[in-house]
Design a protein that fits this description.
- The structure is a homodimer.
- Chain A is an alpha/beta fold.
- Chain A has a single domain, classed as Maf protein (Alpha-Beta Complex).
- In chain A, about 30% of the residues lie in helices and about 25% in strands.
- In chain A, strands 1, 2, 3, 4, 5, 6 and 7 form a 7-stranded mixed beta sheet that branches.
- In chain A, helix 3 crosses helix 4.
- The radius of gyration of chain A is 17 Å and the shape is elongated.
- The mean pLDDT of chain A is about 95.
- Chains A and B meet through helix 4, strand 7, helix 5 and helix 6 of A and helix 4, strand 7, helix 5 and helix 6 of B.
Chain lengths: ~200, ~200
């Protein structure tokens, strides 16, 4: 791991996989922040991504720090990670047959810069209509747990998603095209060797 | 492997992963067909998917047979798998900064049914503008080879894709929501146990 590896303020295995797919060396340092925030989905994810990145700034003043927060919203209501089977069941039951939104906030702090750069991505996702049996079977698979909105588009729930509009990696938890753009804006030294 | 596992007429590891993610047991039997077809993208993928499925029908008359074909099209021109670095370079150079289309044909033959059911999915994909260096570095990574349009959205090229409209799994090579719908239409016996 090079000395100047980016700091990823997230313990999510999906975010780590996406960052790996971009060919960017990183170290994982999950930030422990107060996640009890109210507001519009866009405000919530931006604020939480900022909190996470800023929590790590004192420890890593000379490194790129990247943080993200993702949530699902339906008709303005926010769906986070389900606490138990009943909540997961209700979330999927509400999502099926409808469009919903996935919001991510991404925050990047570059070495030597005062300001944190926080940006937002939103993807619209459409679920096919599901039978009660399909919902129960999906929840029983265990996949909904630990995922905002109680589903994983890269997992079994992928076959329930008929259409999306926007960034697909945002739905997994990290909008990689946005992250690339932000890194370029802040002169992140992409290296050719990373891509071999 | 149960006796009645579905037959997948494709050697693509991505299609196998997507079908695995759906929880469907299958056996792989790549079909060897003449792929030299001209026409509109939609016609080409439908015809090739049908050819692949029908090639396996005599060998597996009592099984579900699933075949697919995927290609990329830009302004009506068809981009298949690149033959060498130069072709890959040209394809990515053309795709960057623009919208293009990914077309898949899916063909399902159900046991005891005469007709093959062939359906089409199309996803619009937008690439960020790339520098020549980024294009060269991407081609040098080797990822473009064996992929229609010379890129893998689930790989390093994911960060070049700013937005999609349509099925995301279609861009990987198998539109899983469409496959689910076709299997339901033809009374495929989804089993609860498959989902544990």
């Amino acid at each position: 791991m090079p000395h100047d590896a980016l700091i990823l303020a997230s313990s999510s295995p999906r975010r780590q996989e996406l960052l790996t797919s971009m060919g960017i060396p990183f170290e994982v340092h999950p930030a422990d922040v107060d996640e009890d925030v109210n507001g519009h989905p866009q405000e919530v994810v931006l604020l939480l991504a900022q909190r996470k990145a800023q929590a790590l700034r004192p420890q890593f003043p000379h490194r790129y720090i990247l943080a993200a927060d993702t949530l699902v919203s339906l008709d303005g209501r926010i769906f986070g990670k389900p606490k138990d089977e009943l909540v997961a069941q209700r979330m999927i039951q509400e999502l099926q047959g409808k469009w919903h939104e996935v919001h991510s906030g991404v925050c990047l702090i570059a070495p030597g810069e005062e300001a944190a750069d926080a940006r937002h991505a939103m993807t619209k996702v459409h679920f096919a209509p599901l039978t009660e049996d399909e919902v129960s079977t999906y929840v029983a698979s265990g996949e909904p747990f630990g995922k905002a909105g109680a589903y994983a588009i890269q997992g079994r729930a992928g076959m329930f998603v008929t259409e999306i509009i926007g960034s697909f990696s945002n739905v997994i938890g990290l909008p990689t095209a946005l992250v690339r753009q932000m890194l370029i804006s802040h002169r992140y030294p992409f290296q050719k060797e990373q891509v071999v």
